[in-house]
């Protein structure tokens, strides 16, 4: 028997219960209809006949009055019609005496009717009107009242019978309603119990199959589902047992190799000195090497947190950002500079790590993410030492350089004597070199102050379109000297404001526009735009110069870096200063290059009000 047939059999008790309830309902309605029909067929028909007889008697009395008034034609017509009607209806009543006292009442009525009819005929045969009138009031009219009284008595008997029978039907309907309710509850309860027993018997093989699957999933390779029968569940159990046999065979044949491969992989990542963490697609840790576990022990008791160590919260936040980037299908995560390194306080003191991430790909896409935390503590400390050294040297250079610059200036002013042409040329070259060295020292000191947090940033609301108009005005003469067109592209956000330090942001625009003018040939153009980007204002400076090659895009903001083969200019500190200023304001800066289309685009963001 198939599973479908068994399921249909489990519904049979309910169907039988519904059928039984339906039959009881039909029988009950039929019984009530029969009782109601008895009332209509018997007593109600007598009531109608008696009322018609009463109406006939009234009309016969009216005929007597017409006769007394001399209207013989109307009197004869009424008598002929209603006497016949009375006797016809009386025949119906006399043939259907239902109640116990009704036969005696009918006989009395008939006797009164005969007396009344005979006296009525005697009155009709009386030619003297006065005698007829006297006969009517003394004989006929009292007979008329007796007939009406008998008719009223018969009507009362039938109306009482109708009321009693209606009450009986009402009581019967209540009894039948209770009987149907009790029968319905009993039938439904019995059907539900039988269906429950049948369904339990039907689902018992599924329970056996479920327990076997749970045991197999828990590692019990000997778990099998013992189900007898030939239905679909039994077939599924046999297929399950075959699968378990295949899994057991596969485990015995491949488990050793799998364990060896896993141990080899774990040993490989454990041998790495840097922490390595492997995450699943839901963000949970799958595995971690020894260095990672020593640095960031997983929080087994704190499922809502990724790591138990309080000092690793910043790193946990960074890892969340990296995971979202990779799991969103944006490719690997590669830090662009040491500024993205994250500090972690461990037993060995403060350490700096630079996160890198690669997606783990399977047949259905990304199945995990591998995160490598590159230890850049030593390089970070070397960077700090270098910055301190550069800051110290720049500061020490500042005083003698100022003196040298002043001495050259005095010589050029011929304060200490007249210069010949050769001396003047040499001093002019020395003056330019002093100025360049002075600018370099100032840039180094600015970077040092910004990185150390000693720079005094005075933020204030700035209207974006006025800021750009002022930038265009300051650099208009420089661009005009190289025959370059400065364009301010209109925008829809005329009330867009940013919160920034006006002097520092002007320095960012100055460095970016100076570079753009320097690398844009005559006849080119530079376009400035601003747009609303979520909670930030996005500034863009696009030129039509030679562009920047792809390998150098990630390094242009490094200190002292200059693109090989580019025109001579500063010391390579301007873009580094721009990045420090923008990041100090909580924004981001970047560059897009279009070498094939001639030009590049520098952009940065600032927080809006």
List keywords for this structure.
609 residues; alpha+beta; 6-stranded antiparallel sheet; 5-stranded mixed sheet
**Strand residue content:** 5-15%
Summarize the biggest pleated sheet: 6 strands, antiparallel
Count of helical regions: 13
* Proportion of helical residues: 55-70%
pLDDT averaged residue by residue: 76
Structural class determined from secondary elements: alpha+beta
Overall 3D shape: elongated
Strand tally: 13
Q: N-to-C SSE series? A: HHHHHHEEHHEEEEHHEHEEHEEHEE
Query: Could you name the ranges where pLDDT drops below 50 across 5 or more consecutive residues?
Result: 300-305
End-to-end Cα distance, whole Å, is 75 Å
Radius of gyration, taken over Cα atoms and rounded to an integer in Å: 57 Å
Description:
By secondary structure, this protein is of the alpha+beta class. 62% of the residues lie in helices and 14% in strands. The strands form 3 sheets. Strands 1, 2, 3, 4, 5 and 6 form a 6-stranded antiparallel β-sheet that branches. Helix 5 packs across helix 6. The radius of gyration is 57 Å and the shape is elongated. The two termini are 75 Å apart. The relative contact order is 0.05. About 1% of the residues have low confidence.
């Amino acid at each position: 028997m198939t599973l479908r047939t068994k399921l249909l059999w489990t519904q049979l008790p309910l169907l039988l219960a519904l059928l039984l309830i339906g039959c009881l309902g039909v029988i009950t309605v039929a019984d009530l209809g029969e009782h109601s029909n008895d009332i209509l067929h018997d007593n109600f028909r007598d009531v109608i006949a008696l009322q018609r007889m009463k109406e006939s008697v009234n009309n016969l009395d009216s005929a007597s009055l017409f006769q007394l008034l001399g209207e013989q034609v109307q009197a004869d017509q009424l008598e002929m019609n209603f006497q016949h009607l009375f006797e016809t209806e009386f025949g119906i009543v006399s043939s259907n005496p239902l109640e116990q006292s009704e036969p005696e009442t009918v006989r009395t009525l008939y006797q009164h009717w005969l007396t009344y009819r005979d006296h009525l005929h005697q009155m009709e045969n009386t030619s003297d009107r006065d005698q007829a009138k006297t006969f009517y009031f003394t004989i006929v009219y009292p007979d008329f009242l007796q007939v009406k009284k008998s008719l009223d008595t018969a009507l009362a008997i039938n109306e009482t019978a109708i009321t009693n029978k209606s009450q009986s039907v009402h009581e019967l309907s209540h009894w039948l309603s209770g009987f149907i309710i009790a029968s319905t509850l009993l039938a439904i309860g019995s059907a539900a119990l039988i269906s429950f027993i049948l369904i339990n018997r039907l689902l018992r093989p599924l329970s056996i199959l479920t327990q076997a699957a749970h045991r197999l999933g828990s590692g019990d390779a000997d778990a099998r589902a013992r189900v007898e029968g030939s239905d679909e569940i039994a077939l599924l159990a046999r297929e399950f047992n075959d699968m378990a046999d295949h899994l057991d065979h596969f485990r015995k044949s491949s488990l050793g190799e799998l364990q060896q491969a896993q141990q080899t992989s774990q040993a490989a990542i454990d041998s790495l000195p840097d922490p390595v963490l492997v995450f699943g697609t839901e963000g949970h840790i799958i595995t971690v090497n020894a260095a990672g576990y020593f640095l960031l022990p997983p929080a087994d008791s704190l499922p809502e947190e990724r790591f138990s160590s309080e000092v690793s919260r910043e790193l946990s936040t960074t890892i969340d950002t990296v995971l979202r980037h990779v799991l969103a299908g944006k490719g690997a995560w590669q830090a662009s500079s040491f500024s993205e390194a994250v500090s972690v306080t461990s037993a060995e003191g403060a350490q700096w790590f630079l996160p890198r991430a690669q997606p783990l790909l399977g047949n259905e896409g990304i199945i995990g993410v591998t995160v490598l935390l590159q230890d850049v503590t030593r390089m970070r400390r070397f960077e700090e030492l270098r910055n301190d050294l550069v800051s110290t040297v720049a500061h020490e250079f500042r005083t003698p350089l100022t003196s040298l610059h002043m001495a050259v200036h005095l010589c050029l002013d011929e304060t200490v004597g007249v210069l010949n042409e050769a001396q003047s040329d040499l001093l002019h070259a020395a003056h330019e070199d002093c100025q360049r060295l002075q600018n370099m020292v100032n840039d180094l000191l600015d970077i040092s102050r910004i990185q150390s947090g000693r720079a005094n940033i005075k933020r204030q609301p700035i209207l974006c379109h006025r800021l750009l108009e002022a930038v265009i005005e300051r650099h208009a003469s420089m661009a005009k000297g190289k025959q370059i067109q400065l364009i301010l592209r209109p925008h829809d956000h005329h009330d867009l404001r940013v919160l920034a330090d006006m002097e520092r942001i002007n320095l960012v625009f100055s460095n970016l526009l100076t570079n753009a003018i320097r690398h844009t040939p005559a006849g080119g153009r530079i376009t400035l735009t601003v747009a609303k980007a979520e909670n930030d204002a996005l500034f863009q400076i696009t030129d039509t110069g030679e562009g920047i090659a792809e390998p150098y895009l990630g390094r242009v903001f490094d200190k002292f870096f200059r693109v090989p083969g580019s025109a001579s200019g500063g010391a390579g500190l301007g873009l580094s200063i721009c990045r420090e200023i923008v990041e100090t304001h909580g924004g981001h800066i970047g560059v897009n290059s279009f070498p094939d289309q001639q030009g590049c685009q520098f952009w940065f963001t600032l927080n809006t009000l």
